[in-house]
Amino acid sequence: MQCNEILVQCLSCLLFFGGAGYFFRQTSVHTPYGRYVELFKKPTLVPAKLAWFLQELPSFLVPILLWCKAAGQLSTNKTVLLMMFCAHYFQRTFIFALLTRGRPSPLPIMIYAVIFCAINGFFQGYYIVYCAEYDDAWLTDIRFILGGIMFLLGMAINIHSDHILRNLRKPGEITYKIPRGGMFEYVSGANFLGEIIEWFGYALATWSLPTLSFAFFTLCSIGPRAYHHHR
């Protein structure tokens, strides 16, 4: 498979413009999942554990398949960067999904998430495997080092914040409680903040337009949600 620069540029622009459009939509409309599900409308719901597993799986599985296909041809630099992306989605697919106590997700929202994760998983994996170019010293470059630190810090904040949220309520409780501790002492959406930091760190570590466009899309999609939580 050869690198298609036009495809890379088009998908990057799509994430930038899609993120901006989603941002402005969310300033007036709450995406109907989690606490914003309107149960009285009786949507078709998918259990939280299953929904999170299915919708996050493509972002892990697709890059892994691309990596396997190119096994033996990738440099250490590319392998490390691709595994950073996969590490996030391994945690979200096989650990977060198993532990979550969240509310069921509407079926359409889950389907949209599956489609997005499949496309983005392919896009990010395709770029790293077939398009990105790094010299032999990239893993000692200041951009990779700072980006890697940001990525790990963001992941740690995200995982710790999810742990706090899971332990807010006893099994079966649905009453909303304000989280305390960790980064929740400073921001209302600490889990969202962690993921935003994580992906901007990854964009710095890879120094690429596709990863920056994904980081921007993440900011636009979960940033307004954090604002709604705060209100």
Automatic annotation (TrEMBL):
Membrane-topology annotation of the record: Multi-pass membrane protein
Residue intervals passing through the bilayer: 49-68, 80-99, 111-130, 142-161, 199-222
The enzyme's E.C. designation: 1.3.1.22
Catalytic reaction list: 17beta-hydroxy-5alpha-androstan-3-one + NADP(+) = testosterone + NADPH + H(+); a 3-oxo-5alpha-steroid + NADP(+) = a 3-oxo-Delta(4)-steroid + NADPH + H(+); 5alpha-pregnane-3,20-dione + NADP(+) = progesterone + NADPH + H(+)
Localization per record: Endoplasmic reticulum membrane; Microsome membrane
Keywords linked to the UniProt accession: Differentiation, Endoplasmic reticulum, Lipid metabolism, Membrane, Microsome, NADP, Oxidoreductase, Sexual differentiation, Transmembrane, Transmembrane helix
PANTHER family for the chain: 3-OXO-5-ALPHA-STEROID 4-DEHYDROGENASE, 3-OXO-5-ALPHA-STEROID 4-DEHYDROGENASE 2
Protein name per UniProt: 3-oxo-5-alpha-steroid 4-dehydrogenase 2
Organism from which the protein derives: Polyodon spathula (North American paddlefish)
Upper taxonomic lineage: Eukaryota, Metazoa, Chordata, Craniata, Vertebrata
